[in-house]
Design a protein that fits this description.
This protein is mainly β. The protein has 3 helices and 17 strands. The protein has 2 domains: about 50-180, Jelly Rolls; about 180-300, OB fold (Dihydrolipoamide Acetyltransferase, E2P) (Beta Barrel). About 10% of the residues lie in helices and about 35% in strands. One of its GO terms (molecular function) is hormone activity.
């Protein structure tokens, strides 16, 4: 493994300009104006985290915009038989209003029938084009940059169409292209490594058992043998089966483009959970981490304390 590696929970992608609306019917901006002028009713989620609805509640000749209100940090939106448009209003009550938030969405398998836009003050930027479900498609953007506007695309037959996506709010910052939580594959600085120890969802010491590249997903799966478990928020790492030398076993993901290879020796692995999967963050060799930790400790610059032996 080459030095320290940072990975994001999705493939960096291109932000397309808004295309003209195909076929008959008003363009997205007119649909947006319609709801701002009171042209559509509101529908509330039953559990305030996830919403499931149907476009068949609209009259066939009308292009309605429906309001969806959600108040959780994670959930799912499923829109069967999409017609018209949705505005997804996220009002999470689990974060401080002053805290920076990043919103990520991930299309469900087989999602089709609508484009998903980032909208702010009437301006639309395409996040996910209808049918474009490439590997690692999980765009992210700052919560203050706008909301989600989902517009159905003209279809001959909507009976087999369902637009769906997961959403996830995090306090980590999005990358400049709105499609990454951080710069993929860039080595971490000493300061970033020390901060990752304090803020990551998992921090473990261990070695690489094997790396499996998955070109169809544009990801690499790193299988780890863990000798010490400092912290994990989810059960990514589980006790090793009897007869395998003790410790824990688990896997984390990174981008295929990072070119991760098995490396000898021990590393400190850190990272975050992203849509239920563990994604690699900073991963310095453990001896390098010990040295930078002790240097920072002598200068009183460690953001938090942990055992380094």
């Amino acid at each position: 493994m080459r030095g320290a590696t940072r990975a994001a929970g999705g493939r960096a992608g291109q932000l397309w300009p808004r295309p003209p609306a195909p076929g008959p019917g008003p363009p997205p901006l007119l649909l947006l104006l319609a709801v701002l002028l009171g042209g559509a009713g509101a529908q509330y989620s039953s559990d305030l985290c996830s919403w499931k609805g149907s476009g068949l509640t609209h009259e066939a000749h009308r292009k309605e915009v429906e309001q969806v209100y959600l108040r959780c940090s994670a959930g799912t939106v499923e829109w069967m038989y999409p017609t018209g448009a949705l505005i997804v209003n996220l009002r999470p009550n689990t974060f401080s209003p002053s805290r920076h938030l990043t919103l990520c969405i991930k299309p469900l398998r087989g999602s089709s029938g609508a484009n998903i836009y980032l909208e702010k003050t009437g301006e639309l930027k395409l996040l996910v084009r209808d049918g474009d479900l490439g590997p690692g498609q999980a765009p992210c953007f700052g919560f203050e940059q706008g909301g989600l506007f989902v517009e159905a695309t003209p279809q001959q037959d909507i009976s087999r169409r369902t637009t769906g996506f997961q959403y996830e709010l995090t306090s980590r910052r999005a990358g400049p292209d709105l499609h990454a939580l951080s710069a993929p594959c860039r080595p971490c600085s000493h300061t970033e490594v020390l901060l990752a120890v304090c803020t990551s969802d998992f921090v473990v010491r261990g070695s690489i058992q094997k790396v499996i590249h998955e070109p169809e997903r544009q990801e690499s799966a790193i299988h780890l043998n863990v000798s010490r478990l400092y912290r994990q928020k989810s059960r990514v790492f589980r006790p090793a089966p009897e007869g395998e030398g003790g410790g824990w076993r688990g896997r984390v993901s990174t981008l295929l483009e990072c070119g991760v290879r098995p490396g000898h020796g021990e590393f400190l692995f850190t990272g975050h959970m992203h849509f239920g999967e563990a994604w690699l963050g900073c991963a310095p060799r453990f001896k390098d981490f010990q040295r930078m930790y002790r240097d920072a400790e002598e200068r009183g610059m460690n953001p938090c304390e942990m055992g380094t032996e």
